[in-house]
Amino acid sequence: MPKTIISLCDYSGNWAKPYKDNGFDVIQVDIKLGQDIRLFKKIKDDVYGILAAPPCTEFAGSGARWWKDKDPQLLLDGMALIDACFRIIVVHNPKFWVLENPVGRLVHWIGKPKYIFNPCDYGDAYTKKTCLWGNFNIPKKNPVDPKFIVMPNGKRMWKMYYESFKMKKEQRQEIRSLTPMGFAKAFYEANCNYE
């Protein structure tokens, strides 16, 4: 019987892909797939691991300048998703679990992360400082130099982020929220036989 992985808030399937490709039974849960994690019911099977990547819109430090002017309900809605992730983790009691979110204010509610990385630490040539909380093995790094462009004002900007401004806001958010495949593979290799 294959091991079960629950992948929460993972519309693209990137983070769960290495597990799926290697014979794990992956349950992908995302509102864009018609499944609200707040209503996810306990499954009967044993769960080997849980990957959780809740939306970062209300938590990422990159949006700090707007926090005080936002409707407080947006933060409450974001916290409901974080709470749902933790409820699913607690009731399934997996061998390993991990919750991902960019550097920001989530530390005020769930504490200091276990690990912080950039995609360029795992072979994807860009930066996006990302925090991981949970019970998991830290993946082995495979660093590369990030690709930047220099703006007219002399500031460096991650190339993919700059190019994403040509897209609609929703497309830009979706691309920036994708789990980098280098990290996904390294995380899989470190945790597919979790001890």
Radius of gyration: 17 Å
How many strands in all?
A: 8
Sheet having the most strands = 6 strands, mixed
Mean pLDDT: 84
Helix content range of the residues, please?
25-40%
Structural class: alpha/beta
Number of helices: 7
Beta content: 15-25%
The global form is globular
Element string (H = helix, E = strand): EHEEHHEHEEEEHHH
Uncertain runs:
none
**Largest beta sheet: strand ordering:** 2-1-3-4-6-5
Describe this protein's structure:
This protein is α/β, with parallel strands linked by helices and 195 residues long. The chain has 7 helices and 8 strands. The protein has helices at residues 17-21, 64-67, 72-92, 107-110, 159-164, 169-177, 181-191; strands spanning 4-8, 25-29, 49-52, 96-102, 115-117, 130-135, 148-150, 156-158. The strands form 2 sheets. It has a 6-stranded mixed beta sheet with strand order 2-1-3-4-6-5, with no helix packed on it. A two-stranded antiparallel ribbon has the order 7-8. The mean pLDDT is 84.
What is the structure about, briefly put?
31% of the residues lie in helices and 18% in strands. With 195 residues, it is α/β, with parallel strands linked by helices.
